[in-house]
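Re: that backbone. Tokens:
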């Protein structure tokens, strides 16, 4: 990346013909930048057959080297050649080929000396060392974020006089004046009304606490949005749609940089502490990927190869989910199912190791003080019954309906934000939403507490020692019967909690729509789980009371006798949380594993699977896209979804450019164009690459050359090769013919020429073309007829065609 910057910052092209290089690669044009390129322009590219190498030792990567090397200034690699522009897509085939060549070279050298053998071993070990570092950094940052967010969330309600750095729970841990009924009240913890007016009783004290709660929330939100806007605009949002796009090969420079990491970490704490309806789990994936990208720069193997770096980012995403949920296996499956585009077996092992180290690091930090990796770890002891699958499936249906509703409304609101004046005032928008959230949340204790604490409360299986209102049942039993509590009639506290939870459900459903997508770090996992957990707890309590009062009904009498512990409302909350999260994200396997790891209950996998699958079916029936795919399409990222089938009967000739009545395809000839001719084409077009043909008359294809490589090579030749002028002939052939005396030196650029561009015929079905683009990660392919070049299909053309076939606006596939 540093080399790329150097090459870009020192362009100094002759005659001013390249002044528009940085901005000239248009997404709309023929060779659009968001595709993936078959560009074998690097010296480390796919080699010829071994026998050819033996015959000609001068092989140099782009083709067989010429014996006439006088004018071939590219015998030495040029910094910048073969690298990628911002908002460009990598060439997966070339990058993997370069890595194979590098590995082959190291293996061959390791047989020659001990030092080379040591280098080979260190190269093989470097991947595991990098995973270890990513796990350590991700776990440490997650622990720091958890501890800071917990303290700052409690700061809205009061402060610990025994040490301001203690949160509410830690402040009262060592207090000798804590009663069992009020474990959260101790003399060391003072609310703001106690500090300001010396009392915690009465209407005025309530108003003071209310005012301070709203004030702190606005302050935290203002700091978060201001830091994002001023220092790191890429630190906003969840980050998962962009991570998916980057892992598919797209380059967004700075998105995984140092500033983004620092600002995202700080503002994530502020955003979570503000009380907005958002979570830290999605942004933690972004934070972990930032750690992975930054650490990659310490290893040449990953710094110089974009495909290898994306393998590391896939593992980093697994580590991010591992520390977000305390679910290392779920993290690996999340990376495989949801975010990764290319996931070889080696990446699976390394993702597992990175997730393991990250979880171990977080467990060592113990941010919640409960020796668990998450705040809402619970264990259930009562088995579920077959009849309960019916309410579990109902929760799945609710989750699917909620997911589809949320995606449609949130995307509509985000589109309005992008297309109206609303998007120009992100600070005001954040402050308004924060003020509304805080004002509505404070009166209800279930919305006033942090969302993670709310989920923990909803998942909780009530015991004898629980003092929560959700556990305020009437005790009509003999406690000597055993540890398991029978179903009991609900008390006044439970009924009060029910209507408060119903109001909390409405608030969470509505306010999350407007919160996700604002210019602050905002995850969606926790708000979605909260919606489902509230709905599940309400249904669970209803089922529990139904079983208690009507245990003689046919549906209950076979398995639920009076005085037995039949229904676990906390389990319903967990199933509802899984259903709603699945409805929004469309995750299935990874979701079930994450929820299983959260609860430690192997026997509850079937209810979770039933709810997750039902929610996905219902949500898919109402809209095919999950929230992350919908945001990818909204932002116009060039992401070619591998899960969708292309079923239309169109041909390559229907999609390729140029079309009929369009200008002819811009091409370069292999041996008849001058430097000035090429410079003119580059300055007058915005294509990011050009086919090279034998001649304009024959249109026989020779290869493909990238615009960026051309510019850097010509610039370098003018600086380092004497006599290269505008009238110098550019050769892409293996041998340059003898030139008359006194003619300017020729410029040989064969080494930047991709000699094996991917081609299809004009009658190739588009379903095959789309499959090729997906599976090979192509950036473009050339279309031929009887060996003659006809046109070109880029990744952008494929995406536009898919949108057009789906009756969508093809111009929406424009990255902005």
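Recovered sequence:
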């Amino acid at each position: 990346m540093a080399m790329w910057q150097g090459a870009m910052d020192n362009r100094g092209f002759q005659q001013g013909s390249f002044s528009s290089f940085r901005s000239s690669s248009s997404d709309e044009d023929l060779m659009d930048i968001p595709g993936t390129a078959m560009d074998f322009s690097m010296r480390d590219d796919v080699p010829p057959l071994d026998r050819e190498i033996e015959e000609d030792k001068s092989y140099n990567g782009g083709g067989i080297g010429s014996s006439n090397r006088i004018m071939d200034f590219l015998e030495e690699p040029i910094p910048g050649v073969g690298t990628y522009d911002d908002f460009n897509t990598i060439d997966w085939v070339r990058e993997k080929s370069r890595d194979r060549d590098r590995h082959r070279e190291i293996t061959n050298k390791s047989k020659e000396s001990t030092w080379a053998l040591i280098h080979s071993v260190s190269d093989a070990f470097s991947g595991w060392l990098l995973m270890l570092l990513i796990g350590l950094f991700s776990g440490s940052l997650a622990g720091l974020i958890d501890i800071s967010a917990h303290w700052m969330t409690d700061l809205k309600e009061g402060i610990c006089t025994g040490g301001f750095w203690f949160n509410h729970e830690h402040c009262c841990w060592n207090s000798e004046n804590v009663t069992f009924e009020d474990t959260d009240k101790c003399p060391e913890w003072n609310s703001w009304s106690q500090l300001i007016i010396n009392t915690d009783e009465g209407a005025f004290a309530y108003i003071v606490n209310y005012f301070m709660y709203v004030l702190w929330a606005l302050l935290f939100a203002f700091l978060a949005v201001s830091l994002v806007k001023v220092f790191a605009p890429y630190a906003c949002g969840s980050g998962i749609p962009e991570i998916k796009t980057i892992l598919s090969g797209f380059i967004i420079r700075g998105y995984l940089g140092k500033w983004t990491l620092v600002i995202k970490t700080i503002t994530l704490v502020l955003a979570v502490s503000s009380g907005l309806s958002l979570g830290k789990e999605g942004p933690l994936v972004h934070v972990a990927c930032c750690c992975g990208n930054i650490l990659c720069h310490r290893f040449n193997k990953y710094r110089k190869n974009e495909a290898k770096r994306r393998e590391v980012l896939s593992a980093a995403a697994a580590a991010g989910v591992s520390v977000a949920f305390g679910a290392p296996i779920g993290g690996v499956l999340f990376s495989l199912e949801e975010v990764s585009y290319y996931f070889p077996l080696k990446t699976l092992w390394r993702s597992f190791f990175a997730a393991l180290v990250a979880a171990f690091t977080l467990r060592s930090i113990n941010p919640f003080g409960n020796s668990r990796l998450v705040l809402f770890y619970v264990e259930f002891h009562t088995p579920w019954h077959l009849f309960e699958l019916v309410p579990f499936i109902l929760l799945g249906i609710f989750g699917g309906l909620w997911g589809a509703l949320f995606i449609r409304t949130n995307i509509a609101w985000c589109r309005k934000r992008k297309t109206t004046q609303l998007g120009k005032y992100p600070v005001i928008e954040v402050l308004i939403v924060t003020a509304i959230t805080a004002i509505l949340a404070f009166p209800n204790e279930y919305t006033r507490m942090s969302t993670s604490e709310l989920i923990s409360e909803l998942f909780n299986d009530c015991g004898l020692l629980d003092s929560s209102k959700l556990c305020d049942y009437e005790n009509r039993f003999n406690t000597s019967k055993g540890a398991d509590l029978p179903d009991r009639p609900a008390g006044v506290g439970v009924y009060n909690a029910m209507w408060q939870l119903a109001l909390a459900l409405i608030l969470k459903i509505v306010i999350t729509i407007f919160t996700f997508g604002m210019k602050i770090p905002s995850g969606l996992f926790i708000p979605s789980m909260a919606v489902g957990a509230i709905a599940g707890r309400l249904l669970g309590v209803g089922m529990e009371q139904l079983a208690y009062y009507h245990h003689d009904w046919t549906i209950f009498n076979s398995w639920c006798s009076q005085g037995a512990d039949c229904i676990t409302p906390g389990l319903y909350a967990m199933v509802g949380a899984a259903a709603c999260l699945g409805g929004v994200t469309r995750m299935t396997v990874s979701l079930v594993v994450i929820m299983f790891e959260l609860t430690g209950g192997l026997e509850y996998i079937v209810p979770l699977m039933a709810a997750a699958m039902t929610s996905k079916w219902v949500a898919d029936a109402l809209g095919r896209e999950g929230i992350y795919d919908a945001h990818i399409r909204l932002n116009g990222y060039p992401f070619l979804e591998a899960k969708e089938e292309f079923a239309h009967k169109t041909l390559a000739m229907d999609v390729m450019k140029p079309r009929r009545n369009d200008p002819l395809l811009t091409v370069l000839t292999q041996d008849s164009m001058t430097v000035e001719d090429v410079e003119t084409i580059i300055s007058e077009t915005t294509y990011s690459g050009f086919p090279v043909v034998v001649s304009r008359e024959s249109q026989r294809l020779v290869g493909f050359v990238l615009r960026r490589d051309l510019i850097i090579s010509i610039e370098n030749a003018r600086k380092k090769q004497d006599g290269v002028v505008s009238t110098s002939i550019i050769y892409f052939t293996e041998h340059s013919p003898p030139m008359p005396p006194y003619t300017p030196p020729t410029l040989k650029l064969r080494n930047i020429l991709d000699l094996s561009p991917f081609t299809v015929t004009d009658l190739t079905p588009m379903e095959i073309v789309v499959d090729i683009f997906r599976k090979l990660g192509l950036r473009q392919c050339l279309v031929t007829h009887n060996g003659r070049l006809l046109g070109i299909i880029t990744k952008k053309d494929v995406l536009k065609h898919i949108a057009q076939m789906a009756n969508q606006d093809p111009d929406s596939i424009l990255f902005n």
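The two ends are 22 Å apart (CA to CA). The longest strand covers residues 788-794.
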